[in-house]
Specification:
345 residues, alpha/beta, Lambda Exonuclease, Chain A, 2 domains, 14 helices, 10 strands, 17% strand, globular
Length: 345
């Protein structure tokens, strides 16, 4: 138990072969859950950056930050102190911000922003450029633009978004069925945002764990992921196969099981992967045990509803095939069957 008091940064220095620095994770050349889940939906997605910028995903990222790395919150996010203009004036401000650079004279890009708004409106606008400029100066456009300039490099949150994220993160950390995972105890180590690289059957994978809860007294190690939803938490089981969280749970559990020595946990029992899920609709929280997903996520199979899914082992093979052959507009099955798709009952 000599490693118990070591920080994660010390672990990284000691074992670069398995744990990488967090800032290197995104660009590290290894297969991950996100890529496999995209392939499962459509091989064409392998060629696209499918990162979404929806309100729900933004709020989820804020909650994740507040729980796993609260010191980063003020560095990455800023709460709007002025009201964002709506409608075409809001579009005009956003276009100005897109065109603006540090040495830009704002008046020099008014016409460009105006033309961009016009293009987005089908080539027609009711108001003239002069009217847009007047509204910009008199209806809060300039105030909001100046705020955006001051917030460059940070994600802007509304007061409502900030409140919602803080309320849900507090709910997740204090719920009677989840609070223990966030409570400091003797001989318990809680690690957040843990990037691990591991190898399985000749393929290198990378995983980024929200949390690792390590009980050195009981010799247990618990991998955890935090999820947020706009719907009620009771609908989470229906989201599992839509987003292939079974793959995530299985791949992450495999990665942790292969890396126990990195955390001074050699010989420890690996607890079932858990999803701690909170809802923005009512701020309720649930603790989901993913034990029954682990083998399915790895090997695939048929659900109780009769739907067949591929596991991450088969998807890895398919990924290698698509990348080797540079074929993305068809699945391998379609390509090998000359485009023929067999309909099933």
């Amino acid at each position: 138990m000599a490693m118990f008091h070591q920080s994660l940064s010390e672990l990284i220095t000691r074992k670069m072969s398995k744990i990488i620095k967090l800032e290197e994770y995104r660009e590290y050349p290894a297969l991950n859950y996100s890529t496999l889940s995209k392939l499962d939906r459509n091989p064409e997605l392998l060629l696209k950056d499918t990162t979404e910028d929806s309100t729900a995903l933004t709020l989820g990222s804020v909650v994740d930050c507040l729980i796993t790395d609260p010191a980063r919150y003020s560095k990455d996010y800023i709460v709007a102190t002025v009201t964002e203009p709506t409608g075409q004036l809001g579009d005009f401000v956003n276009k100005l911000m897109y065109l603006w650079r540090v040495d830009t004279n704002l008046e020099d890009i008014f016409d460009l922003a105006y033309e961009d708004v016009k293009t987005g409106n089908g080539g027609k606008l009711r108001d003239s450029l002069e009217k847009f400029i007047d509204n910009f100066e008199t209806k809060g456009g300039r105030e909001y633009f100046d705020f955006l300039v001051s917030a460059v490099g940070k994600k802007v949150l509304s007061i409502e978004q900030d409140t919602m994220a803080k309320k849900l993160s507090f709910a997740i950390m204090t719920n009677k069925y989840t609070a223990d995972y966030f409570t400091k105890q003797a001989d318990v180590e809680i690690l957040y945002q843990v990037p691990i690289v591991f190898e399985e059957d000749g393929t290198t994978y990378k995983i980024l764990l929200d949390m690792l809860y390590i009980d050195h007294m009981a010799r247990l190690i618990q991998p955890i992921d935090i999820k947020t939803m706009s719907e009620a938490v009771s609908s989470f089981p229906y989201s599992v196969f839509k987003w292939r969280y079974d793959i995530q749970a299985s791949l992450y559990s495999t990665g942790v099981s292969k890396s126990l020595d990195l955390f001074g946990a050699t010989g420890y029992a690996l607890c079932p992967f858990r999803f701690l899920v909170g809802s923005f609709s009512n701020y309720k929280v649930r603790n989901f045990n993913a034990q029954n997903l682990l083998e399915f996520g790895k090997l695939g199979g048929e659900t109780k509803w009769g739907t067949k899914y591929k596991g991450w082992k088969e998807l890895t093979e398919l990924y290698n095939w698509h990348m080797s052959n540079q074929i993305f507009d068809y699945t391998r099955e379609e390509y090998e069957n000359n485009g023929e798709i067999l309909l099933e009952v």
